[in-house]
């Protein structure tokens, strides 16, 4: 894509606006993906199949940020490609590879989640880390082979002191065919596969939500109609429990009110008659409340997953479709595209495709509760090591070694302070 012509008096207003936006997206992309990589590498417990794909996605997005954004904005600012002919070929090739790997990884994640949620029994035997590593190797190999034409047909064209890195095909038919193949492999097929996979996942989760809600209603009706209890005691002498399950009444024998193992000594007045509540009943009520709370949390978590999956497909469509549409338009009818689409619009859509590099860590990782906990645990581990190292250096350089008991006591006190501070920090998150 050629940069806009520089008018007299400085850069265009659109470019001046896009420069800080480029810088912001670049910093967010690098920071977010580096944090994802550090968290997944530092925490060995998080090395699951899905997280291995997320690690590969972070690597490809980081390459996308490093090899695409700076080498796009700098030629625009300087109106000249100053990196040389070799860098022209290498940069364009690495840009294509990073974009392809990111796209293929998104498809692999969608298929992995489909089989894990919709077909767990059939996929349990082959959903292993080794299989994930092989899939990642296939993604990189396919991307490296698929982007070879970019390395072949990109070259540096110099007109006087100004150089431009452009793509020149000798045969326009092959250029159009390759452009259509890129649209098919990196936009149409990924969008179809992700939509179908996540659509089935959402349907499965939604059916699970309905089944859980129905099961909870049936359980409540069973508790209301199938089991009753009379916990009022006459003059505080005895407590009688009556249970009816499946129309089979079986009254329990009267229990002494002073039984230390079953009864609570707290009595509650009701209509002038003292009432004593048994501990088993209280445990049953607590268990039922906990089970209901867990069921509600499970349904809420599934609804969040459904929303996140819809967001993933919408993000992919919004971020990448405009760039591919304009690229295809330029290849098939350059004059019409240049006449109807300004350079600022092209730059904006080009910039929009880079936003995916900083949104993927947020959507796939930081919206996940387990990942957030692993992220905090990884950095607490770094902080704890630093604190222990500083404490050890303080003790090693201390000149007060007269009393061993005092030293041990102070060390224990410092350790307790460190432990308490860690517990407070954990609660604050």
Automatic annotation (TrEMBL):
Keyword field contains Hydrolase: no
InterPro entries: Cholcskin_rcpt, Gastrin_rcpt, GPCR_Rhodpsn, GPCR_Rhodpsn_7TM
SMART domains: 7TM_GPCR_Srsx
Primary residence: membrane
SUPFAM superfamilies to which the protein is assigned, alphabetical: Family A G protein-coupled receptor-like
Record's subcellular location: Cell membrane
Keyword Transmembrane helix: yes
GO CC terms of this entry: plasma membrane
Bilayer disposition of the protein: Multi-pass membrane protein
Entry's transmembrane regions: 20-41, 53-78, 90-111, 132-157, 177-209, 308-332, 347-367
PROSITE patterns named among the record's database cross-references: G_PROTEIN_RECEP_F1_1, G_PROTEIN_RECEP_F1_2
Protein name: Gastrin/cholecystokinin type B receptor
């Amino acid at each position: 894509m050629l940069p806009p012509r520089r008018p007299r008096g400085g850069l265009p207003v659109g470019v001046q606006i896009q420069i800080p936006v480029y810088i912001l997206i670049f910093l967010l992309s690098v920071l977010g993906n580096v944090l994802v990589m550090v968290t997944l590498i530092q925490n060995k417990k998080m090395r699951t199949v899905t997280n291995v794909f997320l690690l590969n996605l972070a690597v490809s997005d980081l390459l996308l940020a490093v090899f695409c954004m700076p080498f796009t904005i700098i030629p625009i600012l300087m109106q000249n490609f100053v990196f040389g002919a070799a860098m022209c070929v290498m940069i364009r090739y690495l840009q294509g590879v990073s974009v392809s790997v990111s796209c293929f990884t998104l498809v692999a994640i969608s298929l992995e989640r489909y089989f894990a949620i919709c077909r767990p029994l059939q996929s349990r035997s082959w959903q292993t880390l080794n299989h994930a590593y092989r899939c990642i190797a296939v993604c990189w190999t396919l991307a490296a082979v698929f982007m070879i034409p970019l390395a072949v047909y990109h070259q540096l064209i110099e007109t006087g002191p100004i150089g431009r890195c452009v793509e020149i095909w000798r045969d326009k038919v092959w250029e159009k065919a390759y452009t259509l193949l890129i649209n098919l492999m990196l936009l149409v097929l990924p969008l179809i596969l992700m939509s179908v996979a996540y659509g089935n996942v959402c349907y499965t989760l939604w059916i699970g939500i309905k089944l859980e809600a129905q099961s909870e209603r049936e359980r409540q009706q069973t508790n209301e109609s199938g089991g009753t209890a009379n916990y009022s005691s006459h003059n505080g002498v005895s407590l009688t429990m009556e249970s009816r399950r499946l129309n089979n009444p079986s009254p329990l024998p009267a229990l002494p009110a002073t039984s230390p193992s079953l009864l609570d000594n707290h009595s509650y007045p009701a209509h002038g008659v003292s009432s004593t509540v048994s501990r088993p009943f209280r445990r049953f009520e607590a268990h039922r409340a906990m089970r209901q709370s867990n069921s509600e949390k499970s349904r809420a978590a599934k609804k969040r997953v459904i929303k996140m999956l819809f967001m993933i497909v919408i993000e992919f469509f919004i971020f990448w479709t405009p760039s591919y549409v304009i690229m295809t338009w330029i290849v098939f009818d350059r004059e019409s595209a240049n006449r109807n689409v300004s350079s600022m619009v092209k730059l904006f859509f080009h910039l929009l495709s880079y936003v995916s590099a900083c949104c993927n860590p947020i959507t796939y990782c930081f919206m996940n509760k387990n990942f957030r906990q692993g992220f905090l645990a990884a950095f607490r581990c770094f902080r704890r090591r630093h604190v222990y190292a500083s404490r050890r250096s303080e003790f090693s350089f201390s000149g007060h070694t007269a009393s061993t008991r005092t030293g041990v006591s102070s060390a224990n006190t410092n350790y307790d302070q460190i432990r308490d501070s860690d517990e407070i920090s954990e609660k604050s998150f």
